[in-house]
Amino acid sequence: MQKILCFGELIVDWIPHGFQTVGNLQIPLYAQFPGGAPANVAVACQRLGAQTIFVGQIGCDVAGRYLKDCLNNYHVDTQYLLQSDHQTAMAFVYLDSKGDRSFTFKRDNTADLHYPIEHINNEMFNDVGIFHICSNTLTEQSIANCTLQAMKTAQSQDVLTSFDVNLRLTLWSDLELVKPRVMQMMQFTDLAKLSIEEVDYLRSGQPEDDFLNELFNSGVKVVVITDGKEPVRLYTPNHHQSFMTPTVEMVDSTGAGDAFSGGWIYGLIEQGIHNPSQLKNACQNITPLIDAVNIAMCCGAYAVTQKGAWSALPTRDDINSLLATIEKV
């Protein structure tokens, strides 16, 4: 099985973990969890049985050492995880009564934003089938340039490229740059995953079909659109299909989208889809893409039933019962 390589931020997520009463106040207690969208995806793929490599940068601080230890504990390859004198990024997660989350980020001039472009090389893509990124490495010009170089290098090595847009608008100092940078990255993307909110934001009033055609015209081969518990939509230039998601009770939605992305690209690798010609055949056959979407949906559904990001990620065995439910629909 070909390896999966994920590039981007590795951060500490501080997630509410109960309350303590102090006088008349209910003080939230926060627990430290490893996180960061592309790191979550790397762990998700590793949990499912793929070999994964994480490329990124952390600080030479307590948080950075903690995060590297966490990746090693989950058996993710960290040979390309660098450390710098900049601080490690963090996020404080707020969960509402339904388990939906929002974020407050501590990510000003942090280590993940300073990954050196000269470290992007052909060698890191040896035996890699899919290269995965998210948009948080597009928020600043230097790391956006590095991400673009990585996508170009991956495609030059016949590695499939995966882009989960995963917009966190509070990280952008200039919202006018969001769509141009995202669309520039789509020119080097084979597999695009977006939420319906991201589709609506990026199309800016443009008809959805026109926006999808814009993605395909830019070079994207497959588009997957998620909408929480609503049906997942799969698009190729010649095919459109919707899939009902498994019904589960949500506890915490943190990392659910990354669990979905990990399941999606793992499902493709599991079926031997790891270069452009194999993806082209899968787009014509469609069945391999459907199988991968089913795995992705089960991974996302399982993740929302658990707290945290990595701790909520399923193994292949964990999702078998959910897969059986989908197959009966």
Concise overview:
Helices cover 36% and strands 28% of the residues.
Provide a descriptive summary of the structure in words.
The protein is of the alpha/beta class and 329 residues long. Helices cover 36% and strands 28% of the residues. The chain has ten helices and 13 strands. The protein has a nine-stranded mixed beta sheet, with helices on both faces. It has a four-stranded mixed beta sheet with strand order 3-2-6-7. Helix 1 packs across helix 7. It is globular, with a radius of gyration of 19 Å. The mean pLDDT is 93.
Q: What is the secondary structure topology, with strand pairs?
A:
Layout: E1 3-7, E2 11-22, E3 25-35, H1 37-48, E4 52-59, H2 62-73, E5 77-84, E6 90-95, E7 101-106, E8 128-134, H3 141-156, E9 160-164, H4 178-186, E10 191-195, H5 196-203, H6 208-218, E11 222-227, E12 230-236, E13 239-243, H7 256-270, H8 276-285, H9 287-303, H10 320-328
Parallel strand pairs: 1-4, 1-8, 2-6, 4-5, 8-9, 9-10, 10-11
Antiparallel strand pairs: 2-3, 6-7, 11-12, 12-13
